[in-house]
């Protein structure tokens, strides 16, 4: 009698705990209205495409375990789709967002509701348009707090500041893209970088709107730095202040201190900053890390960290004292960029796959398509060619008639093939002086099939075709471990011995060292069609992309869910 009473009270407590757990998971219902809105920057007003009239777009703040239902209503004149960058979307590729990969775009006047749940993820991610160059202005932060009562692995400051780094064109970005697509030449570089949408003091007509962050002396804050820029890796630094890195791409790291971070498009980096300097005003600044032999935007964006007790100037010329400027590395300082990236470690022992089922070797880089008439206005690339880019010599072309995921699910033929090559068609000295005969890739829409739960390793090998370059490679639907990297050609006999299989950083986007390679591992436990591509949008448009088609497992919980009824059709 007594023991059954005890059992039922235990069961009751367990039930209460279960309800508390359920009650703590929230559903966030939001509307994202895609609409043009006049935005004035660099002395000129443009009708920018925005979400709800906001630029940058709204910040989403959720908890691990929460669900989101975001209705995107397209009131702009362009097709659009929204990607939730870094969210795993387990068995739910329908909510991932890349146009023609997992969905057809949302047409003007139409809408689509992205429904998804955050499953075992916390930290800083972001969302952005995944349709041509619309993400130039359509992006925002997506912050995932731990479940209620679940601790951070470091002392979490009370204040949290999203820092969205962006790129601004003094033109309609869609026209910049259209022109480049016509001529085959490289697109114009941006006219400014921005911090939370503002270029800052160093640009024309921008001073009064420079973003300011007040801070109390002695206070520690967390900066959630997101590189939402279209085409450029950036160095970021705060004058006189050290930054302690605690997280990248929504995965905690072993904390380490640095004066500068390098962040590629698509990546996020959380740093702690303590206001332990003389009360004053300090610039935070970002400028290009340019690893390629190519034109780039060499301007500098700034915001101001302002101690609330900063002294003011007295007497004549009264007012605020001039901010201190940080030391940023040189534009081509690959040594600093690499040293920073190589310091990242997962915060604890990582469950890295050790037995590899799929050993993939991908060459990534640029290329040139020869023209029959090199004087054509459509062949304004180097020596009368058109720019291209490829993985294993395959230059990816988006399908038009359907998305890959929809075609796969419906068994519709003719949209894509599954013969993406696991290795390049020929072996050559990838980072040496590559013969011209190997510069021209082949166009196609090819996917690579993976068995459910396969242990995958990919070595991403940069090539020196056209130029060596840091390519920030992003994989949808997964987080991977970055187990090794180096310069020159990957050596399969000697390099794996030096892999870090203990605490390699977990990421969703990793740059190839320019003229080097990087190796990543993951378990293919998320069925669906998942895009992998360079997060530099001009390279993506040239074809630096491929698709993994991860097969279903046996059980229902190992298979792709049924598509939602409002999934857009092509
Ligand atoms: Cu953040 Cu496919 O991109």
TrEMBL record:
Keyword set, alphabetical order: Apoplast, Copper, Glycoprotein, Lignin degradation, Metal-binding, Oxidoreductase, Repeat, Secreted, Signal
Cellular-component GO terms for this entry: apoplast
Signal peptide: 1-25
Cofactor details (free text): Binds 4 Cu cations per monomer.
GO BP field: lignin catabolic process
Record's catalysed reaction(s): 4 hydroquinone + O2 = 4 benzosemiquinone + 2 H2O
Residues in Plastocyanin-like domain copies: 35-147, 160-309, 419-553
Protein name according to UniProt: Laccase
